[in-house]
């Protein structure tokens, strides 16, 4: 850790410190230029394909250095600049390696394959996990781990005269990889591509052909280390290599683990532990709240046998409070660290600075005690980005969060009559108390929507608890105190972009994190509550849509043992207070960029919003189009919603361009959206389901997930979160489920040990787990059948704690 600052700075020759690479070309041994194509690589002139660890050069806090961070006032809402808040690259975004192809030549697309495009996992210097490599300078490749398999781990193909690389599995968070292009890449003449002039210089052996200045030799050492490390695979030689570039994948889960650790310490010390405090009894049933309040009668007598109660829990709010009522006021509300980055502290000490042995104030003491002295608050780190070097977030306020609670009626007679009709034994409260199911709703919805599944769960003897996501339901934000929410994502007047913030990728990430953190707090509060008759150590989870999207991040932290923090003996008491044994997810996904852009509900809204904010010529033309009479008439029905209007106008605008044959403009728009997809996926990866899927799979919780894939005829696949994505093969509900180790099934399952399953529905729609109502392309009969089957599967799976999955109606599911 000590070497992070100093060694990251040694190759600042890239950005003009000392003699530039132009000087290298003039002063080093002559290299004969070639007319062959090459990989574009000329860092001194800003020609570097990303992801690339050369953008770590000069870092003082372990984050990427982006051009926008040179401004006096840094705008981290800018998609490119936002990458400067990260400690690495995306776990899953497709990316490109740019080629320099002379006008007379054309890339032979058939040669973009597993011979010409190689990927190697390595350990880089200054590793915080490998003792041997911890003493090697940062930026230097230290150790070969393995070569990735083409067609299994990744795929490459030509994209024009460039190379597109598509991960088929997420890269391991926190790990490093080296991209290699070999001379097996050829043009249509059959001639091999060659190293660029610059790369040809820095790949020269530093021992026999050192370059001129110390900075130049430092860069040469970096590239030499890449090549020397990957040839340890034995599958290629240095002469084969025409390009190599390292990429370190950002950390995922370290911040949520720290949030969990803070909660764990509160449990260990019994101080500041969140408490679920119940209010006076409402005297109402779920039947009253969900149906009679809307002038309807409950469809089942069970709803009137469920007590509806309300409580609250005080939870830390790590999102900053917006200071204005305009949407732009949300752009800087992202999470920040409470402390100085450990990387910054290491650099400070390496430059002769003195760090006090003991805390100098209350905040410094919190940093010191929470991290065994690793983090401090000495005012050295201005930006306080949250990374693996600085994972402790700063709470900006404490929110009194309303909690919805349902319990079985005191008199179980009616419930047991219904159970008898279903062939189930009589229900009685266990001696240890009722088991609990945490419920989490979808985007633009509220906790009350989850009441629809409480009948199925109550019949199985569960208490349920639920809270709203941030900026949803009762948790909208009223900045000016006029009694009206200025920011709210749910309801008729809600704006989905207040939560899924496309104006600031860091805020989009941290809204997801806040949802996860709130679930951790709610989970722990079950052990400190005046709610009688529950078992706080027998807890399951049901998440729908966004609730399923944030579930893996919550579960990864909740089911992680705190033994390294408090010791095995204390962990034996604390771990059960967080553990979630059984999980049911409906219509969730990872790979956020892919499923958002292809969402039938949100995709065009997102594309329109991105194009409007892009600042390109097409952006200006689109903004003018939105104000035209043509757009106003075409999108009149969406006039009341700025986001929906932008989505409608995007369709109208691109349709107009298509009919006019404006292929160049359409290509530019596609490029803009692709750049956005890369930036937002990279920014949110620390909170993305896919980044934590393998960790969740390893923890052993039994997980059920359902997804509507459609019947190939009238019943469409899920139109909100698609089951698959063409943007990325790891995006969509089905790939995400597979990454968590879920086994696809279409029949009933019984096992001796808890198992995890993925069930694909041919009938139903995105909301079918909650409602029997039809939707576009879904008949009333099919919608009702899907709803009944989904709720039955969820209930049987949770009731058996993952030992059984009952598939009663095989006609609505498929393998």
Automatic annotation (TrEMBL):
Signal sequence range: none
| Domain of life from the UniProt record | Bacteria
The residues covered by the Bacterial virulence factor lipase N-terminal domain are 50-272
Question: Coiled-coil regions in this chain?
Answer: none
Tell me the InterPro entries matching this sequence: AB_hydrolase_fold, Lipase_bact_N, VolA/Pla-1/cef
Q: Name one Pfam family in it.
A: Lipase_bact_N
Q: What is this protein called?
A: Lipase-like protein
Species annotation: Pseudoalteromonas piratica
């Amino acid at each position: 850790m000590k070497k992070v600052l100093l060694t990251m700075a040694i190759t600042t020759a890239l950005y003009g410190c000392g003699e530039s690479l132009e000087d290298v070309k003039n002063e080093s041994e002559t290299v004969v230029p070639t007319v062959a194509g090459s990989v574009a690589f000329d860092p001194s002139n800003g020609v570097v394909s990303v992801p690339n660890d050369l953008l770590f050069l000069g870092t003082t806090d372990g984050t990427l250095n982006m051009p926008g961070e040179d401004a006096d006032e840094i705008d981290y809402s800018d998609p490119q600049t936002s990458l400067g808040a990260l400690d690495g690259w995306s776990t899953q975004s497709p990316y490109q390696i740019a080629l320099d192809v002379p006008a007379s030549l054309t890339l032979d697309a058939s040669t973009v394959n597993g011979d010409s495009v190689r990927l190697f996992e390595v350990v880089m210097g200054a590793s915080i996990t490998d003792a041997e490599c911890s003493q090697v300078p940062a930026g230097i490749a230290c150790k070969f781990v393995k070569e990735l398999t083409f067609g299994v781990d990744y795929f490459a193909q030509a994209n024009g005269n460039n190379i597109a690389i598509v991960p088929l599995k997420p890269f391991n968070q926190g790990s490093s990889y080296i991209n290699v292009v070999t001379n097996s890449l050829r043009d249509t003449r059959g001639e091999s591509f060659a190293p660029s002039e610059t790369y040809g210089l820095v790949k020269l052996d530093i021992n026999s052909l050192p370059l001129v200045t110390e900075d130049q030799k430092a860069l040469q050492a970096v590239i030499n280390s890449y090549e020397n490390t990957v040839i340890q695979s034995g599958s290629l030689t240095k002469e084969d290599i025409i390009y190599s570039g390292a990429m370190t994948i950002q950390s995922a889960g370290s911040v949520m683990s720290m949030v969990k650790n803070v909660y764990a310490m509160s449990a260990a010390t019994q101080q500041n532990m969140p408490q679920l405090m119940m209010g006076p009894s409402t005297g109402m049933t779920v039947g009253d709240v969900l149906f009679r309040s809307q002038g309807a009668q409950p469809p089942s007598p069970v709803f009137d046998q469920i007590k509806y109660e309300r409580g609250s829990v005080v939870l830390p709010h790590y999102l900053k409070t917006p200071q204005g009522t305009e949407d732009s006021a949300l752009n800087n509300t992202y999470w920040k660290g409470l402390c100085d980055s450990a990387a910054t502290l290491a650099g400070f000490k390496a430059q002769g600075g003195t760090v006090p042995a003991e805390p100098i104030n209350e905040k410094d003491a919190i940093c010191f005690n929470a991290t065994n002295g690793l983090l401090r608050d000495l005012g050295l780190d201005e930006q306080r980005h949250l990374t693996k070097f600085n994972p402790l977030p700063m709470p900006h306020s404490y929110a009194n969060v309303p909690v919805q609670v349902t319990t079985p009626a005191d008199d179980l007679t009616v419930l047991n009559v219904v159970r008898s009709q279903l062939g189930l034994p009589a229900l009685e409260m266990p001696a240890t108390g009722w088991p609990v199911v945490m419920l989490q709703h979808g985007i633009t919805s509220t906790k009350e929507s989850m009441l629809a599944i409480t009948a199925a769960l109550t019949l199985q003897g569960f208490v349920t608890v639920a809270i709203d996501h941030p900026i949803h339901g009762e948790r909208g934000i009223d900045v000016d105190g006029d009694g009206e929410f200025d920011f709210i994502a749910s309801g008729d007047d809600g704006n989905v972009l207040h939560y899924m913030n496309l104006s600031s990728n860091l805020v989009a990430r941290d809204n997801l994190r806040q949802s996860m953190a709130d679930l951790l707090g709610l989970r722990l509060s079950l052990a400190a509550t005046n709610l009688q008759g529950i078992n706080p150590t027998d807890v399951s989870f049901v998440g729908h849509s966004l609730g399923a999207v944030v579930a893996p991040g919550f579960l990864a932290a909740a089911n992680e043992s705190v033994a390294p923090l408090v010791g095995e003996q204390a962990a034996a008491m604390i771990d059960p207070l967080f553990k979630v044994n059984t999980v049911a997810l409906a219509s969730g996904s990872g790979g956020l960029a892919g499923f958002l852009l292809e969402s039938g509900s949100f995709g065009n809204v997102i594309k329109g919003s991105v194009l409007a904010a892009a600042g390109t010529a097409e952006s200006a033309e689109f903004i003018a189009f939105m104000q035209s009479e043509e757009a106003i008439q075409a999108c009149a029905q969406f006039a009341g919603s700025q986001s929906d209007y932008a989505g409608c106008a995007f369709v109208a605008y691109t349709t107009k361009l298509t009919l006019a044959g404006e292929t160049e403009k359409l290509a530019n728009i596609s490029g803009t959206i692709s750049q956005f997809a890369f930036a937002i996926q990279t920014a949110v990866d620390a909170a993305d389901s896919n980044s934590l899927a393998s960790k969740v799979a390893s923890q052993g919780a039994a997980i059920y997930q359902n997804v509507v894939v459609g019947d190939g005829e009238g019943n469409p696949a899920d139109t909100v979160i698609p089951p698959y994505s063409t943007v990325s093969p790891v995006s969509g509900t089905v790939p995400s489920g597979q990454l968590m180790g879920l086994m696809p099934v279409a029949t009933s399952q019984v096992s001796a040990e808890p198992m995890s399953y993925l069930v694909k529905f041919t009938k139903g729609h995105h909301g079918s787990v909650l409602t029997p109502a039809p939707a576009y392309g879904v008949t009333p009969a099919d919608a009702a059948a899907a709803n009944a089957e989904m709720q039955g599967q969820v209930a049987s799976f949770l009731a058996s704690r993952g030992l059984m999955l009952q598939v009663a109606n095989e006609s609505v599911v498929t393998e």
